[in-house]
Structure formats: C-alpha cells, structure tokens
Amino acid sequence: MLYRRFGRTELQMPVFTCGGMRFQHSWKDEKPSEESQRNVEACVERALELGINHIETARGYGTSEEQLGRILPRLPRQKLIVQTKIGPAADPKEFRQNFEKSMSLLQLDYIDLLGIHGINDRERLEQTIRPGGCLAAAIKFKNQGRVKHIGFSTHAADTQVIVDACNDGRFDYVNLHWYFVNTVHGPAIQAARAQDMGVFIISPSDKGGLLYRPPEKLCRLTAPLSPIVFNDLWCLSNEQVHTLSIGAARPTDFDEHLKTIQYLKSAHGRELLERIEGNLKAEMVRVLGREWVETWDFGLPRWEEAPGQVNVFEIVRLYNYAKALDMVEYGRMRYNLLGNGGHWFPGHRADKLEGMDLSAAFPRSPHAAKLPQVLREAHEMLKGEQMKRLSES
Fold first, then answer.
1. Is 48 exposed, middle or buried (0-12, 13-18, 19+ CB in 10 A)?
2. pTM beyond cutoff 0.85
3. Cα(260)–Cα(269) distance, integer angstroms
C-alpha cells in the first residue's frame, strides 16, 4: 500500500479507502443478518491485510455504522483511521443527536474524521457554517477530544459552493467527485490545496463511469489496463488527490484496484497513462469533432436557469461519453436519476423540454443551434425507467 499525507491533518492516508456504503445489510436501521455481518468483517479484515486502514461510513448508510461497531472495538485503535459523516440540519440539535447516535453505534470513544455529509448547495453550506450551526457543533466535539479532524462531503452541482466551503478555512478535508469522465470540480481541488486540506475522491468506479461493468470499446481503449485501473491511476497521478474510496461489497472487490499501485510507482505507469488518455481523447474527437469536444460546455445555463430546470450540463456530459466511448449503461444510470436525485443530483431529464421553444435558451453557447437536437438525441439514447438514489430504493 502507498500512503499520502492527508493535508494538514498530518494523517498518513492509504491511497485507497474502505468505503462502508455497499457492504451493509440494509439502508434502514434494522437488525443485520449474521451472514451480512460476516461479510462486513471479512471486508474490513481484508482491507487491513492490504494496509487499507481508513474505514469510512456515514449515519445515512443504514446498518453500516452498527455493523462496523461490532468489529472496530476489537481492532488496534491506534492503527485505524475511522471516518463517519452526518448530514447538516437547520437545527444543530438534530446534528448533535445524530452524532451521538453514530458514536453509540460505532462503539468508539473518538473518531479520526467527522464529515458534514452532503454540502450540496448554498442552503446547506449556510446551515453548516453560520454562527451556532453544525460546524460550530462539530468543533465543540473536536474540543472535547471526540473528533480529531473535521471535513465535509459534497455532491454539489455548483463548483463554487465547494470552493466557498474550502475557503471558509475551518475544514480539514473534503470528499468530492473528480474522475476522467468528470473533471468539473478541478477548481475545488485547487481551493482545497490552497487550504492544505485532505482530498478524498468519492465513488471512482461507480459514479466515475460504472467501471465494474465497462463497455467493450472502453476496455479496448484502456488496454492493457482495465478501465478501473486506468481511472484510479488517472486520479492518483494528481498528487493533490490523497485517497480513492473503494465501496467494497465483498472482500475480492479490492483486488482490481490494487493493480494500480505498481503503475503509480513506475515511469512505465506514467507512459501508459499518457498513451491511454491520448487514445480516449482522440476517439472522442474522432466521433464528436474537435470543436465540440473542446467547447461543448461553454455558456451552458445552470440547471436552475435552464428551461424546465433541465440539467443541460450533466446530460450533455453523459451524451458525450455514451456516444464516443459506448458508456451507455453508465449514462442511463445517471440520466434516469434526474428528477429524483434531490439536492444530491439536481435537475430534470430532457423529456421536460417537449413543446418548449429553445431558440433563445443558450445565448452564450457557440453550439446554441445544435444543443436542442443533442438533448433530444441524448434522451432517446439514455431514457429508461426513472431511478431513485440507492438509499431510497
């Protein structure tokens, strides 16, 4: 295992994290089965064998905290980095109560990392950082020695929300999305670096492209690496990124990711990365055209300002990768969540544009005339039964 300094926390963070979202028994607080508990313990034990000592969960992950609480107290505490996350609330009393429940379930005297979970928009940022808000409550827990470091997680559509949270100066780390197929939050990583914050990448193999079920074309283009290893290598080649979450559902889910480490350590890995990235970009230019690839996102409206609150940016991004790299299944997974994703994944699908006059909808885009047809084509390619977030399924 390789380790990186996790910003000003000074923790030595493994470049892979054992994420606790997918091995839990249920998204609801209920008694877990013995079979599920054995699987959780096998995943944690495998992670520790590999040197992955960062165990990450959340109050919103159903039985995950309780199940981890059955094994973590039996392990050498000083060798573990434990993180849980708690959503912000308008009333900080609710936040404090959820923290106490998390600590009770985890059966620990302290946690290394407390993340305020889901600072996804301006409203939740303000709830968190206002005087007497959730961040103030978290700082009190830190002063009591029950929390070592405080950060936040975010699925924000607006990068500026993340940048502003980093610039607040009181957060020690951030969990965010950033991958080969979605680089929009690059400025947030720069803001985190300026504050010497730890940077944790959420869901690189799922929201980073459904890479555990990749299309044949993507596999050909990333060969001799698998799409998972390519994306891991791409993310970790940025030394401002400290760890990638592996949401293991079974102990073997770590195996493919581990292949990345040999390439991180070698000049050959850097050469492979450059060649594969070049192949992928060349194919996108071949299919979509250079001008489109280089300028498709210029002047697109925010989802709140678009006709029908259609998330134009996200839809066109998914269209690009589905069209050029055959990442249709990934596009469908994300596209059909629109309309049901709430503040975690806001905006609507392109079917909301039916009957609307779009002639003046994209005044700042160089592709204003083309975008209505692209949105219609994206809808036909990606439409399916509307989906819900995993926690609501």
1. middle
2. yes
3. 9
